[in-house]
Amino acid sequence: MVSTSKERNLVVIELVGGNDGLNTVVPYGNGLYYDNRPGIGIPQQEVLPIDDTLGFNPSMREMKALWDRGELAVIKGIGYPQPNRSHFRSRDIWYTAEPETIGSQGWLGAAIRDLDPRGENVLTGVNFGRGLPRAFVCRGAPVASVGNLETYGLLPDIDDENVRLHALDALGRMYGPEGGRDVVAQALSENGAQALMGADILRTAPELYSSTVEYGDTPIATSLKGAAQVMSAGLGARILYAQHGNFDTHSNELQTHAKLWQDFSAAISDFTDDLKEQGLWQDTLIFVWSEFGRRVRDNGTGCDHGSGGAAFVLGGSVQGGQYGQYPSLREADLSEGDLAYTTDFRSTYATILDRWLGLDPDPIVHGQFEQFGFVAQ
The domain that contains 286 carries what CATH number? Predict the structure, then answer.
């Protein structure tokens, strides 16, 4: 069954690879920033100031415009205890909200299960990209995964539904018997039929969509246009997911990072304009995150894996501003050369789950965490 009721939407965008928080929300008023980054420090005169000490990367002009309108919240120093510099492990921690153990379900999958406990809508969660992010993995929470709305993201080239279902089952069985099968493979096997059904419904979204906004020709713009098409079609999608990257800037950071944020900011500007045109901007919250930040000291032309990054929350109902504490750059306050995290990412999750989606956050984030005011109670 497809719901056509107007509900609050959550769009989650993952900055894959470890976005450099220091060159995103730049502490241009702190001389220690320039001392540590002679090779990749952004000159003061190029920073887009948001106060007397911090400013955005110069490639984030559209994001700055959202800030100026009070529709963008900056989450400073976001991370978790005992940070891990592995892409795979750190992403898994963010996906499952389990920093200390290996989690068995994703936080967004659990949210989908709670939003639609009887599984009445196979489109409650939609991923724009290939495969199934662990953030969505939860038994009883099917997720449609699409590269674009003309092709299905999971086994798109198989037209016959029975053949596709057999292929999905075979994919699940590759991981061994039922008792030891990987949780992701179980989700693929158990939810394959619902996911295929969701993909078939999603193909109707472009026919129901009309907009004057012309998106750029970038992968992130394509994903966000797809999200706008699905949301405007009234198919009951509540949680949508996209990825942008690669932010793993060990070298050539200034050029690579600038292009990534230029593409992202332009796509976000088009997306927000589209949502306003569709009458969805006030009912949409966008959360932007990355698995970790980068080292404080550069390595010449880039910087290596670190911690203590930055995240963003934006939307028509967001209470814009700065949340959390910017990490200290003093050497004595660093954590093995990294920014020490000052804000637990689960506080942001808890705020979104409780204040935006109306869910009990404690079972999903595995504890009680202080909430922020970027969503009014």
Answer: 3.40.720
